[in-house]
Structures are given as C-alpha cells and as structure tokens.
Write a structure and sequence with these properties.
Helix content is 61%, strand content 14%. The protein starts with 7 loop residues before the first strand and ends with a helix.
Length: 294
Amino acid sequence: MALSGMTGFGRVEASLGDWTWAVEARSVNGRNLETRYRGPPGFEALDRAVRDAAQARFQRGQLTIGIQARRLVTAAAVRLNTDVLERYLALGAELVGDGRAAPPTVDGLLALRGVIEAADADEDPEAQAALQAAAAVSIGQALDALAVARLEEGAALLGVLTGLVDRIAALSADAERLAADQPAIIKTRFARRMSELAAETAGLEDRIVIEAAAMAVKADVREELDRLASHVDAARVLLAADGAVGRRLDFLTQEFMREANTLCSKSALTELTSVGLELKAVIEQFREQVQNVE
C-alpha cells in the first residue's frame, strides 16, 4: 500500500425495499485510530460493524461515520392501531349520544394522534437483518471511498516530503563542507587572540596547538553529520515502504531535530550556524507534514 494521508471523505447511497439511506465517512488527523458512529433508530446495532470495518482498513486517524436513513411511507409501512381507535370511539360515544357532538367521520378519526402509526420494522426480524446487512455493505463501500481519498492525499504528501528530505540532505552536505574548515579556522582565530593577549611568546605556538586542538574536538560535528545522513536514508526507506509509517516518521523527525540542535550548538562558524538554522527550519516543515501521514 502506498503512502496514505489521514484526511478524506467518502459517501455512498443505497436502498432496500422501502428504505433509502446514505453513509458518509470522513477522517482527520489523529495519533491513534478513533471511530465515532452516528445512526438513526433501528441502525444502532451497526456500531460494531463500523468499528471492525474501520480497523480492517486504517491504523490512525479520527473517523466519523454517519448514516441518514428514510423509510418511504406506504400502505405496507403503516398500520391502523385499533386499540387507540376504540378508546377514542368509547370516549366520544357519550357526547354523541347526548347530542353534544356530531358523529365522528372517518377522516376525523384517522387524523387523531396514534390511530395511524408506522409499522415497526422490528416486527419482521428477517427484514431488519437484511436491512442491517445491506447498510453494513454500504458502510464498507463508504470506508473504501475514504481510503481512496486518503491515498490521494498521501500521493501529494509523498512529493512534498521527498522534496524536504532532499533539502535536508543538501543542507547536511553544506554543513559537512563548512565543518571541514572549522579546525583550521579555530586555530587561526585562537592564535590571533593569544598573540594579542600574551606578553611572552616563548612556547606560544605549542600552547596554541594544544588549546586549538581541544576547541576543535568540542566543535567536531562529524558524528552529528553521520547521523543526519543515516536519518536521511531511513526517511527515504520509510517513504518508499508500504503500510502506516507516520508514527515512525514522527520519531525520525525528533532525531533529525536533535542532531540539528547539536550541530548549531557546536558550530564555531557563522556560515555553519546559518546552515544549521535553515536545516532546523526545513526539519520543522517536515514535521508539520508528517502529522498528516497515517
């Protein structure tokens, strides 16, 4: 599977019998996989199916899956509640008998609350099971559409992240080139300073060599540069890998930044510090984009 983002949307519409429904699935960034389901009465039992389907397709992201359903009201979908009707007739019989009210009409009786009601879908377990199974299929299709949208986002992210990794590699090469000049520059700078301050010149050259060597050791950034190169290789491997790599890229970004910070703290050259600061800025851009990767 190619690189996947965590933002997307999928929608599916379907029908069965006198029912029609639409399933919408959307997701945003999240450190873990979180699934929320919202469904109308009669569709509550699909919560488990939603979670299983989401876990089968995704590893990270905040998912919201909702169903909007409507039942076409037909003669088969309504029923006459004779118990309620009989109570209305009994209550009105005395009034009609005393002449205080006109005899009820059919239209008037049918308009009374509770006389006509929707048939309860639960009365037919097989129909209800078929409805839920069909809705579960729609949920899977909506999640598949969401997965396609997330892959499209991942394809766009891949180009951005690859460019940033290339930029990190180029800046690391610039830092390596500048760092190679640090020992000689440190020695020259220290020798000039010592010459200005020291009254006695006897043994000054030896002292300069010793002190400059100690300063050069403290300013040595070869280990940081080697680790940066290793992290660049690791990032390229992850970007080419299958599956969810966002969490590992996030960890790798922390390692990038750690080496860049040390590089800046050890720098004895303005140019090297400038490269280190730009490197940190690019790594921060990389970190921001990695937050969108599953």
